[in-house]
Amino acid sequence: MINRRHVMVAGAAATALPLAANAESAAAFDAALNAAFDAVKPVALAGGLVTTQGLEWSGVKGVRRSGREASAQPGDRWHLGSNTKAMTAAVFARLVEQDRARWGMPLAEAFPGLTIDAGWDGAVVDDFMTHTAGLKDEAVMGAPWLMTARADPRSLPQQRRAIVEKALGAPPLGTRGTFEYGNANYVLVGSVIEAITGGSWEAAMQAELFTPLGLTSAGFGAPKGDNPWGHRRIGEAQTAMDPSDDASDNPLALGPAGTTHMTAGDYGRFLQVFLTKGDGWLKPETIERLTTPAPGQSYAYGWIALPPQPWAKGPVIAHEGSNTMWHTLAIVDPAGSRALFALSNDGGRGGPACQALAMGILRAL
What we know:
365 residues; alpha+beta; six-stranded antiparallel β-sheet; three-stranded antiparallel β-sheet; 14 helices
């Protein structure tokens, strides 16, 4: 899930704040973290500043589980929610660079032999990565699916393929060419990746992203072990979600749209790629494509392009993610060679807390 208002406010709130030529001391960022935490009081809050050299600063405050004493730690793993989408798009881009896929790939080429309704004529995989294909979540992943998907005995690739078959076997409910954010779009992209590789999206993520970039903490679903728990809030009441419970995350079939977790350090490593023109993992022109929306649009490939920011040295991209129990916010200024992110294990207060921390980091800069 993405809250476009939060992302836009994060950029707008910093427009009057010029960036210093050099980063301030870690104490300034620690103070920003403390201020954001104290103002919003989430269960836990973490954040980081990334440059071309890697993770320059990170901090964490709060507890892993509400009502318990164990503090959140720098090496803890955090659920990234919809910020997974940029990773799925990047893995597809890797397949393009390997000549196993291509930009503008028609659906009939992506799913050979699949019966596709005429309403999708002319649609290409890129349209789904930019949420402009006309696919609505309620057509294939509404409340009935959410209530039954966890009990589906089929493999995850089979479950995703079933979603694709249902989606493409009927006319689009949305308007082709019009932006409408939806998780089903990236489930379809994940299924394309599975069709190309012959394995699961999870295996492709491991082979094409986690291993090449050294993201050793990365995984799927709510992080288990000695890590923060996600928290669901209804008003002031909150519930700590045991990661061993299936309800601690969305159904795993939704994975390509938002089930990845990793440490702050590893997430910073992924963001660093967008500051270093691909860092040898992707070509510079591929990074440019992933982060540049089509004319008249503001959403690229898993990234929102913010309006021009006076504090930035060029176009700024951002994204926000949540599975209603965790929250993530990332803002990247590629020309300025810096990115920042905020993470929380609080589904209710995590959004405002991440927002406050992002603004605090920008002020500290």
